[in-house]
Amino acid sequence: MHPSSCDTFVALPPSTEGHHIIFGKNSDRPCDEVQEVVYFPAKDYYNPDEKLECTYIEIEQVAHTHAVVLSRPAWLWGAEMGANEHQVCIGNEAVWGRESANEEEALLGMDLVRLGLERANTAEKAVGVITELLERYGQGGTCMEDESSFTYHNSFLISDRKEAWVLETSGKHWAAERVQGGYRNISNQYGITTKIDKEHPGMREYAQSKGWWDGKTEFNFATVYSYLTTARIGSAGSRYCEGKKLLEKSDGHITAEAMMDILRDKESGINMEGMFMTTGSMVSVIPTDPTLPGIHYFTATPDPERSVFKPFIFVQKVNLLKETTSPSFGPDDPVKKNPRFQSKPDRKHPLFVKHELIAAIIESYKERGQKITEGMRRLEKALMEEMETYLERGVEEPDLLVNLFPGSVQKEMSVYNKS
Questions:
Q1: What is the distance between the alpha carbons of residues 36 and 81, in angstroms, rounded to a whole number?
Q2: Is the peptide bond before 13 cis (omega within 30 degrees of 0)?
Q3: For a tag on the chain, would you pick the N or C end, based on fewer CB atoms within 10 A?
Q4: Where is this region: Disordered (predicted)?
Q5: Four-point Cα dihedral 90, 231, 107, 99, nearest 10
Q6: b/e for 281-293, b at 16 or more Cβ within 10 A?
Q7: pLDDT tens for each residue of 34-73
Q8: Pseudo-torsion of CA 350, 354, 357, 363, nearest 10°?
Q9: Is the pTM value of this prediction over 0.90?
Q10: Alpha-carbon span 5 to 247, nearest angstrom
Q11: Which one, of 34, 24, 28, 30, lies nearest residue 355 by Cα?
């Protein structure tokens, strides 16, 4: 396999409708990998020596973590994308450049996504959390559930109620750019050029010591840290351009539906098929008005064209998301044993099992498949219409929403059962 994934998008006023910030991501991963959607409540830690076990390494825990909802490959601790109770959204991308990606086990980019969400209540603070951890612990380790040594550096798109940040890394070095209006998308290539709002203090000196920059010409992060040749990122460049065109097409009128349409677009390659495919998708609607809730839609299933985007709203006492939570194997998990990845357990959650069967029917029986897809779209439309009420009036009875996402999953499974 030659990986070429993912795509992450954000649109801010005046590109959007209704004073909303719209965030979206397709997570493109190995086609046999299960992606789960899970919720973790806020938590306080009173032991100053508390340790946190991430995918491969332990780090120091903090005194308080925020509530998070995550879409993640079921075998690891971190996440491909997610949001927290303060309406911070983060997605990451694999990027490759002049610096070799580290095969030694450290923090995965997906670990940094979750850590940023758990520890920061604004997008700018998430940049600080991620870069501080990156400089302290580094990034590295295989990013697939096997011994392939598939490693990469990471870029991140981070948003909150007022702005977004693009953060791009190479080893422990990094650059960040603030986005305060319009739209932005990232794919598997460096995209920060000369507008750099924050950076690693030694980033330029390091590039100069390597002979990548002469110290005189204007510093361009993408030019300096990218590959000398663009062969490896050719497909990422194509998807980036197509994604930008699709955002431009809806400029001024970007909505959750428009973002979902972009994530479902197969002609552009954004909705990926093949050995690497779109295994999970997310769209978030974040009002700039702090009295209104953010709505976070997740598929928890592959191929958004054949999936339902289901809503999640942060309220107290959210019920467990059982139907999208994969089995836990604890210390017996092959990921936790050394040597790692000696076997691969069945990580399919209940919704994934149902969806897998339905996807096969859609593929094999055209008329029947069309009816199933129409039923899924009707459900999604009804769910989104219901969410409009909360976006306009706020949440008056939060207890009614503790089962919002699991209830939506049950409705989706009911559509499948009728089929």
A1: 11
A2: no
A3: N
A4: 325-346
A5: -120
A6: bbbbbbbbeeebb
A7: 999 999 999 999 999 999 999 999 999 999 999 999 999 9
A8: -120
A9: yes
A10: 18
A11: 34
CB-based contacts of 331: which residues, under 8 Å, 6+ apart? none
C-alpha R_g of the chain:
20
Give the model's pLDDT for residue 230: 46
Locate 377 and state its tokens: 């779209």
- Of the candidates 6, 54, 89, 143, the residue annotated as catalytic is 6
Query: Residue 371 has which token pair?
Result: 């009816």
Q: How many Cβ atoms sit within 10 Å of the Cβ of residue 223?
A: 14
Determine whether 31 is an active site residue: no
Q: What is the pLDDT of residue 151?
A: 86
> How far, in Å, CA of 380 to CA of 324, rounded?
17
Q: Are 114 and 78 in contact (CB under 8 A)?
A: yes
Give dist(CA 276, CA 30) in Å, integer: 5
- Both tokens of 202, joined, read 């030694």
> What distances in angstroms separate CA 314 from CA 86, 294, 317, 400, one per listed residue?
9, 8, 9, 12
What domains can you pick out in the chain, each with its CATH number?
Answer: 7-418 (3.60.60.10)
Prior bond to 14 cis, omega within 30?
A: yes
By the 8 A CB rule, do 308 and 299 touch? yes
- Hey, what amino acid is at 313? I
Q: How confident is the model at residue 330 (pLDDT cuts 50, 70, 90)?
A: very high
- In degrees and rounded to multiples of 5, residue 90 shows phi and psi of -140, 140
Q: Name the residue type at position 210.
A: K
Helix (H) or strand (E) holding 198: strand 198-199
Compute the C-alpha angle 259/288/64, nearest 5°: 100
